Amino acid sequence: MIKTYAKQEVAAASFGLALLYMTVLSFDGVAISYGKTQGLPEDFIGAVRSLTAIIAMSAAVIYRFLVKCIGVRFTGLIGLTVISGSAFLCSLSAFLPGSPFGAIEYFTELTLETWYGNFKNALQHAPINSTATPVYQLIDIDWPTMTVNGKSMLSVLTFFLGLIIARLGYWISYLCITQQMQETIPSHIRGTVSGVQGSLQSFFSVTKDILLILLPDPKLFGLLILASTFCHFGGLLSYCYYLLQTISKHTTSEATIEETAVKLSSKIEDSYEESTLVRDSFKIKA
Length: 286
Fold this sequence. Notes:
transmembrane helix
């Protein structure tokens, strides 16, 4: 199965798509929880999530426009470039004012007992009728100073801005790579290749979940952002390799077709000259 997958022309692009699943840069429960730990009100998070959904739906329209202008392969390159740029923006947020990122401090003070306590708490479920105590008291945002709970919002807002842009790039890339898989993979092995692709995507998604369980502290969320950025750039490089491979292959095919056409033209000219000589010889005899 893996050999069949690897032999496909679109294998590198498909693997690049699978790498995008090892990410915390999606507007799921992880991002919402991170926003709450930074003191953001739920109505603000809900508004940003709605905006993200609208941007994601607009990706289908932008995708069709770009495909008509530059073709499906280069549209995929644009989508992955947008994702990588947004991932860089999210990585930058880990070092901006207001960020809880403190991996060095965390690991310096870390003990096995502390880590096990955090790990155990991460696996516990709150009772259904209980009221959870928030890490920070949720209050309104002070927009003139761009602070919440007296802490700068620059980091978390930059992170959410990166998430919004990332959704646009992800859906453009997903549509492009999926279309190329459908067009290039033979129908009799399409199910096998799709199965391997789904397994790879699940593997990277589960890897992300395991990292979240092992590193549950908000101080370490910056490490998960950096790991996600690394995978996003890996997906871009994998797609660039596919693009160069297909361009080289198509250039070689065009050169072969041109060479064949030249040879065929030469044979036609030779046969025409021979027929002319035969006709002239008959005229002389006559």
